[in-house]
Specification:
heterodimer; A: alpha+beta; 5-stranded antiparallel beta sheet; B: mainly alpha; about 70% helix; globular
């Protein structure tokens, strides 16, 4: 009986005073930065640029506006340039250019707005990599060098796709 | 990976169990399990913290500080089953401390105003969700102390009455009887509304 009334009270309070939307993602971002600990060096956001560009529409109507974002992260030695372009079906393509003396393996982790976690891994060839069909969400790029190079791994701050 | 349907499922399905599972996985090295733990417990912490009538910014700060404290002290949590309890207790204490300077600030109107979409009238919400409104109206007739006690008990995992008494400013041993009286008043208010 009491458990039943407490269940109803939980439902009622969640209804009349729900948590602000996105608060869990905000907390995840805070902890992710904390959790990077000493293992990864965090690159700083140097520049962000968002532009709208015309694109051919598949429905033969007026060209759709496609949003392209450019993000640049750096620590002075390693620089990562990301170009995020919308794809069909609500996904994105991300092109990455890494400026560094050594090749890095790149891993993109994305936590989508519905809470799924997806990870895409690739290796740079000549400092360039591409991620296709990336879902929208909060993302982070991880850069790790092969064992033996002794290079420190890096990570970008969380960024929104 | 815990699915969102599990997270969003009935709270009676125990977020505390999901929290323990995520915490164990995170300790075992699964990095994304921390996100699951945060997703499961942040809505619970919100409810616990708001029972102290903190405004939104204070509540968010308190929850964030609770998570940061957790990151610094999680190694002291010996029993993974107790992670939810550790989090809710820490959040409750921080909220009690933050609420101390302004215990009398009313929050109900703000809560309700924030909840009700601006384009709808109160009547339409009443009609849509009559049962919730009836319960909410009954809860609002209770004292602040009763409201807080019932809300904290509803969202905490097996609350420790001794510590709860201290945090709620009650004599030790009075939590059980007070809880009984608050529930009884709530039932009377609900019956009165129906009668």
């Amino acid at each position: 009986m009491n458990e039943n009334i407490f269940g109803q009270l939980r439902g009622m309070w969640e209804h009349v005073d729900p948590m602000p939307e996105g608060l869990e993602n905000q907390m995840i971002a805070v902890l992710a930065a904390e959790d990077l600990d000493m293992e990864y060096e965090l690159l700083a956001l140097v520049e962000r640029d968002t532009t709208m560009a015309g694109a051919r529409s598949t429905t033969h109507e007026a060209p759709a506006q496609v949003r392209t974002s450019k993000l640049e992260f750096s620590n002075g030695t390693v620089t990562v340039l990301l170009r995020i372009a919308a794809q069909a079906a609500g996904e994105c393509r991300i092109d990455a250019w890494v400026t560094s003396d050594i090749p890095f393996n790149l891993r993109l982790s994305v936590r989508t707005w519905v809470g799924d976690q997806s990870e895409i891994e690739t290796t740079t060839t000549g400092g360039r990599a591409s991620f296709q069909d990336v879902p929208h969400g909060l993302a982070r790029l991880w850069l790790t060098a092969d064992h033996g190079t002794g290079a420190k791994p890096f990570a970008t701050p969380l960024f929104e796709i | 990976m815990i699915t969102m349907s599990q997270l969003r499922g009935d709270l009676d399905g125990s977020p505390w169990e999901l929290a323990s599972t995520a915490f164990k996985a995170w300790r075992a090295g699964e990095r994304s399990a921390l996100d699951d733990l945060v997703s499961v417990m942040t809505p619970v912490l919100w409810q616990v913290v708001r029972s102290y009538r903190l405004d939104e910014a204070e509540a968010v700060d308190t929850i964030q500080n609770t998570w940061l404290a957790f990151m610094r002290s999680h190694e002291s949590i010996n029993d993974p089953q107790a992670v939810a309890k550790w989090l809710t207790t820490s959040a409750r204490r921080a909220a009690a401390k933050a609420a101390a300077p302004h215990r009398s600030t009313p929050v109900e109107d703000e809560v309700l105003a924030r909840k009700l979409p601006s384009q709808r009238s109160t009547e339409s919400v009443v009609i849509e969700d009559d049962q919730t409104m009836r319960l909410w109206n009954a809860v609002r007739t209770l004292s602040e102390r009763c409201q807080r006690l019932l809300r904290v008990i509803a969202f905490e995992q097996r609350p420790d009455y001794e510590h709860l008494a201290a945090d709620l400013g009650m004599p030790v041993g009075s939590v059980g009887p007070t809880r009984g009286r608050c529930l009884s008043k709530l039932r009377s208010a609900l019956e009165g509304a129906l009668g």
